[in-house]
Amino acid sequence: MRRVCLLLLLAMHVLISHAQHLQKIISLSAQNRPLAELLTEAGKQAGCKISFPVQEVNEWKEVSIHAVSKPLGEVIRQMLDNTGLDYKTVAGTIVVFKKTSPLLQSGPVVHLQGIVRNENGLPLPYVTVQVNSSGIITNNTGAYTLRNVPAKAMVRISCVGYDPVSVTADELSGMKEVVLRAGRHNLGVVEVSTAYQRIRPEQSTGAIAAITTKEYESRISTDFLSGIQNKLPGVLINNDLKFENNALFQIRGLSTISANKQPLIVVDGYPTELSLDAINPNEIKSVTVLKDAAAATIYGVRASNGVIIIERKQAEIGRTRFALRTTMGITGKENYSTYRLGANNAKLNYLRDSYKDGADIPVDWDYYKNRYSIYQPGYEILLDKKAGLITQSQLEQRFADMGAYDNAADYSRLFLRNAFTQQYDMNISGGTERATYYVSANYTGNRAAKINNSNNRFLLSGRGTYRFNKRLSLELTTDYLETSGKVAPVPDFMNVYGYERFRDNNGNPAAIFQVTGMNPVFNDSIKKLGLYDNLYYPLIDVNEISDLNKSVNNKIIANFSYQIGHGFSLRFGGIYENSRNDLKHYASERSSEARQYVNQYAEQGPTGIIFNIPMGGYINQTGINTLSYTLRAQLDYNKVISNQHSFNFILGAENRKVTTESSSSATFGYNDQTLLQLPVNYGRIFTGYWVSPFAGGNPRLSYERLFNKGFTDDRFVSGYFNGVYAFRGKYSVSGSVRIDQSNLFGTDPKYRYKPLWSMGAAWNIDQEKFLHNVRWIDALKLRAAYGFNGNTSKASIPQIVAKYASNLRTSPASTSLDLASMENAALRWEQTQNLNAGLDFRFVGRIYGSLDYYLRQSKDLLASSQIDPTKGASSAVLNAASIRNDGVELNLHADWISRRGFNWNTGLAISRNINKVQALYVNNKQFSYNFLSNNYVVGYPVGAMFSYRYAGLDTTGLPLMYDVNGKIKRPGYGVLDEGFNDLVYNGNSIPAITAGLSNRVDIGNFYVYCMIDYYGGFKTRVPSPSVYATRPLEGSENYFRKPGDEKTTDVMGLYPYAIYNNYHTYVYNYADKYVVNGAYFVLRDVTVSYDFRKVKKIRQMGFSSFELKLQASNLLTVGLNKYNYSVATGSFARRKLVPTFTIGLFTNF
């Protein structure tokens, strides 16, 4: 009996001890970790041994679990769900074993594989796919894979900000895609990508704007920039306005004077040195703009102007998919009848009035025929009248006949054509869990509106991912880009007299005044001496002169990723880019350019004409090679602990190098058919000041223009860290630091090792209890960030630099060195201090967006500064200027109607930027005209516009102005120029306000999309009416003729040459009267589309999409000024835009 009792007590003790082990409370949270590691860790926490079969357990490499303060037995049960494994206790040990008959226990099993997307079709990363109490997380492409799942088990698919979906495993196995709809707390952003790391939107602290594939592809785009224009607040893209001869492309204003002013472009994770032509608009997955320090500091000294991240489409797991797209666009010819032009004979009437029909002409035929440039069409008629060769009635008739002809129609017929753009795009993609592939090809051909002008582009791209095992993977990208272009000279319509003919009476090409300005009689005299015809024949030159440009670009990106475990991963890789640009300028012997070079450097010898430049053609060839690479190694840590603490840290280093080599050479006496050339007497033409006795107005040559070599080598070594910590999904803090070293630096150590850094914080207010009952607020996040970005410039270098020059003040000419750059030991990065505060929101489930305020203080900008003149110069380029920008941005989206078969959404991107130059040395302040074209004036915005206070004309027909006290002043050399006080500030010439409004309405398989752009908050200057212009504008014919006309007209005309000076031209052309409000609207696009995929025949052919799009672009522009002038037209004379009509077919199968 004792033995029985003892055995019973022992058995009870064993059972109780086993039960105690299984009831021990542990916490375990992991994502995609090996099951063996999880079992071992659970045993350690519980203080017991867990035994398992190694082979069976090692099959499960990616197990996810989240258990907080749970009994050990429950935790083990969660880990073993759907694995075919079970556990039991044996002698104090927990033993895991393989179920003997899992099919009998669980029923049929299925394999699950697919992609999770949002409503816009974008893949969703970080989505939990959960079966009972275990599951996995989707990867960066939204893909997931689960094996051996019971067919009847419920699968829950969930993600922060989206409504979860629950289906049975059997149902899910037949679905290749799962679509999650935005939930109450969704901010409208899938994720934030800086290319270095991906951050969940609720954790982001920086100012970021993004557009997705659906938004980008709502319109037909043949180039990258047009697809994002006015869709991202703070990004100013405007080809209508020029600043320093470049189209506007800025993020949050201008933050430099001499350095690169455009944003940094990042494609597939790396900054690119290639042009934007290398980006295929059909491959855009998303575009993200990093605007403040918290978002962009990770890019260090290249981020001051903002960063644009471009992610291209990647392959998706599944069967092979094909996509074929083709578009064709046509732009009509210009309609010159709508131009703001004066009467065609206005110029001729002024010529007659100026010389009183020849009576006051200061020269005669004998003088005229021996002079190079005293010429204007109609001048010979006045000489004939003065010489008595014709009567007054004959003069009237000849002028009437000349003025009756308007060459606008002939210009359009001979030099213009309908512009045509065609694009063909094809891609193939697919793959398995082990490997995916995406191959695309794109051809774009542009036939320009001007004859003999065109350009073409061919792109070939391949992208693949290779998964060697559960830990190691490779992403490989290769790109090939080839471009070619031809430019032929076509005369500017506005620079041709309206009554000049392009063909003579026999149909042969005729000469016009433009380019040479040589009078025909003098030209006949030099031809008799044996020289070339020096006149300009546009119909000849357009066929005999060409600029050919061909480029070949290659890019390779390789990125290895190794999953270390416990939240750590290692990434290492790089990018290699190589480009070759060949430019060939050729002018045949028949061209005016080649002929004029020969004439310019010909001289009279003792026995005849000496040709220092031989007769024949001229060719100038330039080759530019650019090679760049970036190597990067990075350690990532991304983990969630106890469902409360989220860590997303990166630590890395980069090595970057960019080298450029260029060379150019010229050849004269060249024959493009035989490839032969003739010798040139360079020693003669580059000796001393050359004054041609035959063609003084012809273009001149310099040695640097004909022969040149260049080499640049930029090297960078960088280290960086960026981290985001989030607590309970409510609070986030971020920090970033980067140190860049470069061979561009000076030697002062206090500047060489100065880091660029940022910090930020975010508060998801909607997660707080006090907002839980506020139903109309779905999501609300407050964020703020502060930090520094940098910029690079080659306007100054650490060493003193001299360049070769020819001293033409000696005879013969001697060699000299010119000081090109002063030594700058304190050279450092330009630095921009950023402060940003923003609010992200989503209201009533339909309206979401962001509101930002920013302040950017750019200092240490490189600009000309005054120095001690005893150092060899009075000024040098130093880090001495500063500019301030501040502004407000609103990004708003509204889903007004979201129903099955009917959707209407609106997007509004609006921003306002105010900037001011705060510090800058300005030389030569004493003259007012120095400020008229100066874009940087202290105390005013970049691009400030200044004018004279116009006071009309005096009794002689010359302009008057008001001084600073409002008194009338006669400008002139004898009158004191009061410098800046003589001018009035009109406003900024760069738009301070930009806005883009888009609307899209979807009805079944049909949608219509419309985009309207607005630019405001700036001034523009319209041309003053001038009868002196080659093609006078309307109103110019009402010019001043006699005293008393000043009461009825402000248009300069006749005036006494004896008292005229350049100040009169300054005051007239830069009068405040001709400054108007520059604000304007443009109806940029209207696109309609219909997808025929549901048509039976289409479906039977295997098409999953068969979409036809029609688009009209640049339909209408409205200027908000009295002239209804919009700079979108490109010219004040031009009243209307010429629309472009495009048709496109987009298929997938």
From TrEMBL:
It is a multi-pass membrane protein. Pfam families: CarboxypepD_reg, Plug. Its main location: membrane. The keyword Metal-binding does not apply. One of its GO terms (cellular component) is cell outer membrane. Keywords: Cell outer membrane, Membrane, Transmembrane, Transmembrane beta strand, Transport. The keyword Secreted does not apply. It is found in: Cell outer membrane. PROSITE patterns: TONB_DEPENDENT_REC_3. NCBIfam families: OMP_RagA_SusC, SusC_RagA_signa. Belongs to the TonB-dependent receptor family. This is SusC/RagA family TonB-linked outer membrane protein. It comes from Chitinophaga solisilvae.
